[in-house]
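Hi U.,

Before I forget, here's the chain from the pilot set. I'm dumping it here mostly so it's searchable later in email.
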Amino acid sequence: IHFMIPRPYQLVGRDFLLARRHALLADQMRVGKSPQAIMAADAVGAERVLVLCPAIASYQWCEHWNDWSDRSPATIIGRNIDVSAHGVYIASYNRAVQHRDALRDAGWCWDVVIADEAHFAKNPEAQRTSLVYGKQGVGWNANRIWALTGTPAPNHAGEMWPMLRAYGAVRCTYDEFIRYYCHYNWQTGTVFGNKREHLDELRALIAPFTLRRTLRQVAPDMPAISYNFLNVEPRGIDLRT
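Structure:
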């Protein structure tokens, strides 16, 4: 039995996700993106779920599933992998790249892939990005893929291109995308910001599958400063020493 009671805005986020095959939950930190995704996965009856996240968040995600779902405990993928059974599997991005073939073979039948801190998969040439958004990747071939991040494009709009391409929102190449939406230094080959004249167009492009809310919007009574606790996997350390 779990005792976590969702806030009304989290139920809105849950319903937003479960109504979409492709979604970006871009709520601000502390709004509670993980519980919304867990509740949405349960609501759609997902039997096979893959969560991709930074390594430090793997154990935290496992604890979240225990808190917010009545299903069997989630499994953290380590050096060895067996994803043949139904259930929830959690893998760091680096670990998932190591097990790419096994996850891809199973990926044809993932009901939901959740890409947490999805800005980790922003470089179109990186292996982790290909794993999530590439045509042979787990996200592209899943029944549903939901990206979670409060900073979908930390530096420039081009960092959203892999997700937009996988979601079918754009068909242009990465170079075509950044030429249109971003400032580009052709001498150094670097992207250094967005073209303001195209920002409204970009917002309209992502609006159908994006939900973003600030903490002030959804919980104005919550203090601006608080302590956040991150659960990490016990390592058998003797706390008496």
